[in-house]
Amino acid sequence: MLAIIGWILVGLILLCLGAEGLVRGSASLALRAGVTPLVVGLTVVAFGTSSPEMVVSTKASYLGQGSIALGNVVGSNIFNIAVILGLSALVRPLKVNAQLIRFDMPVMIAVSLLAFFMFRDGAISRWEAAILFVGVIVYTTVVVRMARREHSAALDKEFEEGTPHTTQSLWLDVAYVLGGLGLLVAGARFFVMGAVDLARVWGVSEAVIGLTIVAAGTSMPELATSMVAAFRKQEDIAIGNIVGSNIFNILAILGAAGLVKPFSGAGVMPMDFYFMLGTSIVLLPLMRWGLRLNRIEGGLLLLVYGCYLALLWPK
Asked: What is the band of 163 on the pLDDT scale with cuts at 50, 70, 90?
């Protein structure tokens, strides 16, 4: 048992270090190429924090462990909203950008519904995965264009403070990217292996492990990013990181995992999708009310996650 926990912890550490290296190197390369900090924050940083989910789900799909691949995405989206935004709002009430409510939040709800519709037969086929992956390309293009058209000096400054700066040399950027990718791949191997063994030892399904331990573990970069942003009063980063990550999880991660190998998600139940959809839908009116997510609402989100765990975990 200790060895299994050790593999999971080693995998988690490697995943977090890999994500940090990938984000730092990629952000520096983008800034060096003349991309603005705002666009880097909305794309490279937001997607880079989801890289652990990407490699874990893709690895699990390739190994035929579709329950972990799907459970990781669904569980991460629930964890991101209910736990990470809940904790961030407890740290500091979060002011909400109107554009987030007008565009990004409806997109997050729409892609959640799309994933639920696609999984009605219990599997993600290659053509469905292709549709999802094309979706993330379209979404990213639209976000970048909107950011360039509607940016402000205050927003630019906020993202500049929250974005890694350029490194000392181009070669160091490349080393960060390659090293980060290597650590992510190695971490995914240990993490998935430990999760599967843990499910066997505890006598629970791989889906439950994917929806809880794997999902929470791969969401650590998002947790760190949003909590630090909340402490620094960078509300746009704290909230945008989560909403962007949830969209990326469904479109890019399920898309990439399904393209690598079509998979089924035995053990991932409609209830799990209902919670993913429910937290996404409930978040919209909470944010619209005064354009702020306050501490009481943050506490309610944490309570929702506690109820989800109570219903999910075998008695």
From this structure: low
pLDDT at 257 over 70: yes
Q: Which of 269, 278, 294, 288 is nearest to 77 (CA)?
A: 278
Residue 267, Ramachandran bin (φ over 0: left; ψ between -120 and 50: alpha; else beta) = left
Task: Give the CA dihedral 113, 62, 308, 97, nearest 10 degrees.
Answer: -50
Q: Structural domains in the chain?
A: 2-259+267-312 (1.20.1420.30)
Q: Spell out where the chain has E strands.
A: 94-95, 123-124, 263-264, 292-293
- Report helix, strand or coil for 168: coil
The pLDDT of residue 291 = 72
What pLDDT score was predicted for residue 37? Answer: 60
Comparing CA positions, the residue from 10, 303, 35 lying closest to residue 183 is: 10
Confidence label for 55 from pLDDT (cuts 50, 70 and 90): confident
How far is the CA of 291 from the CAs of 98, 99, 105, 147, 298, in angstroms? 7, 11, 13, 20, 14
d(CA 52, CA 254): 13
